[in-house]
Amino acid sequence: MRHAVPFFVLLFSIAGVTAYAQGRGGRGGAPQPPQSPKAAAPIDITGYWVSVVTEDWRYRMLIPRKGDYAAVPLNAAGRKLADAWDPAQDEAAGEQCRGYGAAALSRIPGRLHITWQDDQTLKLETDSGMQTRLFSFGPPQGEGGDWQGVSKASWEYLPGAINSTDGGRTSLNAPDRRGGGSLKVVTTKLKAGYLRRNGVPYSSNTVVTEYFDPVFEPSGDEYLIVSSTVEDPTYLTQPFLTSVHFKKQADATGWAPTPCAAK
Are the C-beta atoms of residues 149 and 119 closer than 8 Å to each other? Predict the structure, then answer.
């Protein structure tokens, strides 16, 4: 299930587009290898981004009081754990980062720095909590079992953004990559953590599906919308849907890495 940005419809995955392009072949020659995920990107989300908190202010800007899990579809087991939250215990156990895992990280106010680690891997770093996520288009990196788990990435293209007649390569009709599609990221193999920093839990069975969509304003401002679906059969009665916004920065102004905090 996608918590979609309204203007995105009928998206196609990179796998389907690549297979179609390879099947078509080239004009006057053998099919060429598909482009790397970096070269085939329909959008450019690299750079520095700062949170724009326009929703759920009291849950994001402040740590909610113990037992406040409104709007989170917790089951009885989840509520029991949330009611027992003890930040001092988390600190003593060296688990101050329980609220900074992939299922909740984008909702913590702060800044993102997104870069290409290599042609197959996007890297997302946060100054809040000093976390690093790797979005792998190829074989996953790492075994998981930590706060950020294992993230599988794929491009989804808008109709008309692909030209698959150039010798079998996947290419873009929109050279400036302004809104030609979105990034889909599915994260699994997470260490159990918190959906909110006041102890609202998610388990190691959680699956997080995110879409990263750029939005361009007439003023020239650029925004990134991150829509997230958290599915956890252990503690949630239904998927937990959220959407957050970031504004593009021209440089690293304001970037101030700080460690995780339990309270």
Answer: no
